[in-house]
Design brief:
This protein has about 725 residues and is of the alpha+beta class. The protein is built from 14 helices and 39 strands.
Length: about 725
């Protein structure tokens, strides 16, 4: 599908472009008038810890290194090392499924293991891939490149130039981050010689979106001097860059207001449907999409909160709020379809492909040559629906597996006549290692084939006596909140069991069942001295996308408290059911989930024995001025707008520390962690929160900061194992005894 729009959340960069019909957008070649410069919040008090916002100043880094030493000296003992090594063995296991993307006759993969910590970009053939030990052709050894360049490169993906029909794929744009952050260098790569193109395209390190227009031309959205970035730190302008042309000499073809989030232009090379599409991402929920017609940009006229996607002759829409058109109202989260040219001419009727219910939501879509594939959630359990346009767009279920699992379906290669209706099906669950299968969608006229297992990952821990159950807690306003529980089947319900609880609750992101091999050695296989075994809980709180836009929008801005009330309700339900007690309940979350953890620390400290708060937003007065924070105003509100700070203050953990706790209430043990190179959320909010709690005399507060790894907090498997083991070890020592 063309025109997938980028997800601009704390956990996904604008270049991810990986989900359903989100907001594509754009301008008309000239920037609209600039918005007034932002003003400081009225009467903002001085922050004595603001010096910690100096990212890599000597004073700030001395504090960071001292905190790292303190945390590591306490945690990094033999038990920690055993946990870390066990987690690393899972991450480096050579019998993992090498997931692939088909391009032409090859299947491409990126692979890390102990011998290649930075990774190999490689490819193989279908016949080889089906075998037990595929023969890989290594295209790029990132470890060797890093050593040659003396730069700690992190592979951030590759974008291939689609060849003319009948020709092989020959060129790619490889993205490399120098520290694991969102900023990347983009270099042209020759697939035949397996080398970077001498004198080829080479874009300097920046937050860049790029699209091939043809073999000698790119659309580039990146930083090009003063005025080229939005206040969210992403590209405001797009240039058409020809081969051998300097970037600052390339003509500007599109621009947006600096108060918007980002601009980008993509070229759809689908034979017979070639087109250029421009995108003006206004905020996370509002955008505009434009088509290039007669050397000008023509907007696809829909409300800005209606997501737009293009596929061949079709245009698809997904409204975030109720959309009334020609007297008919389409509900939020529905999927609508029309003929693109008819819609542009104003003559199209909208066809409803999917309409959500109170218990179902559409998560993503994809296309084979002749079918539309829908990934749907029904009470947070996956369902696969196949839409057949030849049968008046009828929907039929594809049998995939058992309830309380996740299934995901996607096209293999809809432009390859030999497999145009083939699909990948992945199946996974909390206790079910991932399986990759391949099948063919068929009809009476052209029979298909059921999914056949291609690869299966082995179990990483003994889960034979564990079970997965789903429960519903009742939040403060009466809303039923689902959650998953992974526990020993014979768990005694006497409140003495150690439990780790996880949540996110933002940006319409759904937490679904999935096998996390590191969770076994890191948490589920642990037991207390008294023989009590561990459990794991995932809370599907509002703010997420488990029930579509309505579930998400219920916790936006001034309603943010509902996400935190939901998480607290699940914690209380676990206690009421006898699964655990506050003394033995730990909680973890990162990014927006780190904001959730900050609000558990400051708003519900009586419910938890320990909290791990990772790469978090915490200072909600200043978040819009730090890293990419301005891009999330639609989610949280704007502290510089009169009235918004009044409700933002109620969920700003850094400021909630000023609120006195009820007598006898103590803060839970708190590990706050981040990464110096995180250029999305940044480490400074985490630093200030930890320092403030320490200055207040709060006991058992620890801070840890990885020096690289970006927002992921880790740039390779070893760093990931360190990050995970540090969190697990801290939590276990505070609730598992």
């Amino acid at each position: 599908m063309s025109s997938s729009s980028p997800r601009n959340t704390p956990d996904a960069t604008p270049a991810d472009a990986s989900t359903l019909v989100l907001h594509d957008a754009p301008g008309n070649g000239a920037a609209p008038p600039s918005a007034p410069h932002r003003k400081t919040t009225a009467n903002e008090p001085a922050d004595p810890l603001q010096w910690l916002e100096e990212l890599d100043s000597q004073r700030a880094m001395e504090w960071v290194l001292a905190q790292n030493e303190r945390t590591e000296s306490e945690l990094f003992d033999a038990d920690y090392e055993a946990s870390r090594d066990a987690i690393l063995r899972v991450l480096d296991a050579t019998d993992r499924i090498p997931m692939v993307t088909k391009r032409g006759e090859h299947y491409y993969n990126f692979w890390r293991d102990a011998a290649h910590p930075k990774g190999l970009w490689q490819r193989t053939t279908w016949d080889s891939y089906q075998g037990g030990d595929p023969a890989w052709e290594v295209l790029l050894d990132v470890d060797a490149l890093a050593a040659e360049d003396n730069v700690d490169w992190v592979f951030s993906g590759a974008q291939m130039l689609r060849p003319t029909p009948g020709s092989p794929y020959a060129r790619a744009l490889v993205k490399l981050s120098p520290d694991g952050g969102d900023q990347v260098r983009v270099r042209e790569f020759d697939l035949a010689t397996r080398a970077f193109v001498s004198g080829g395209f080479d874009l300097p390190v920046a937050k860049t979106n790029v699209s091939w227009l043809d073999g000698d031309t790119l659309y580039v959205a990146t930083e090009v001097g003063e005025g080229s970035l939005t206040r969210s730190s992403y590209a405001r302008t797009v240039r058409r860059l020809s081969r051998s042309q300097e970037l600052d000499q390339a003509p500007e073809v599109f621009a947006i207001d600096e108060s918007h989030v980002l601009a980008y232009v993509s070229h759809d090379p689908t034979p017979g449907f070639e087109r250029d599409v421009a995108h003006d991402v206004i905020d996370f929920y509002n955008a505009k999409t434009y088509l290039r017609r007669d050397e000008s940009w023509v907007q696809i006229e829909v409300p800005t909160d209606v997501g737009v996607s293009l596929h061949r002759s079709w245009v698809l829409f997904s409204p975030q709020t109720a959309w009334t058109r020609r007297g008919k109202t389409h509900v939020p989260g529905s999927l609508l379809l029309a003929d693109l040219e008819e819609f542009m001419a104003g003559t199209a009727s909208l066809r409803e492909i999917f309409v959500p219910t109170d218990s179902s939501s559409l998560q993503s879509i994809d296309f084979t040559a002749n079918y539309l594939l829908l990934n749907v959630l029904q009470d947070v359990s996956s369902q696969i629906l196949v839409c057949d346009p030849s049968l008046d767009f009828a929907l039929s279920p594809l049998e995939a597996g058992a309830p309380l699992h996740s299934f995901s379906i996607s096209s293999v290669d809809d432009l390859d006549p030999e497999c145009a209706d083939d699909y990948w099906l992945t199946i996974t669950g909390f206790l079910t290692p991932t399986t990759l299968a391949r099948g063919t969608i068929g009809s009476a006229a052209a029979p298909g084939s059921p999914p056949r297992v291609v690869k299966g990952a082995p179990a990483r821990f003994d889960a034979s006596d564990f079970e997965v159950t789903q429960h519903f807690a009742v939040s403060d306003d009466g809303t039923r909140v689902p959650y998953f529980q992974v526990s020993p089947a014979d768990l005694p319900l006497d409140g003495l069991n150690p439990v780790l609880m996880h949540g996110y609750g933002g940006f319409q992101a759904s937490l679904t069942p999935g096998y996390v091999g590191t969770l076994g050695p890191g948490w589920l296989t642990r037991s207390t001295a008294g023989g009590r075994r561990s459990s794991y809980v995932v809370a599907n709180i509002r703010g997420g996308g488990e029930y579509g836009p309505r579930w998400h929008r219920a916790a936006l801005r001034e309603n943010r408290h509902r996400a935190y009330e939901d998480f607290a309700a699940v914690a209380r339900d676990l206690v009421a059911r006898g699964v655990t007690s506050p003394r033995h309940l730990a909680a973890t979350g990162r990014s927006n989930g780190g904001l959730l953890m900050g609000n558990m620390i400051t708003g519900y400290p009586e419910l938890f024995g320990a909290v791990s708060c990772g790469v978090p937003l915490l200072d909600m007065r200043r978040y819009t001025r730090l890293a990419a924070g301005h891009s999330w105003i639609a989610e949280y509100g704007d502290p510089d707008v009169p009235g918004d700070w009044e409700f933002i203050r109620t969920f700003s953990p850094y400021h909630r520390l000023d609120d006195a706790l009820p007598a006898g209430t103590a803060y839970p043990a708190s590990l706050i962690w981040s990464a110096t190179s995180d250029d999305r959320v940044g480490p400074v909010q985490a630093r200030k929160m930890a320092a403030r709690m320490m200055d207040m005399g709060v006991p058992n507060v620890r801070y840890h900061e990885s020096l690289d790894g970006g927002h992921a907090g880790a740039s390779d498997n070893a760093a990931s194992a360190t990050m995970l083991a540090t969190s697990y070890e801290f939590l276990w020592r505070n609730i598992g005894s």
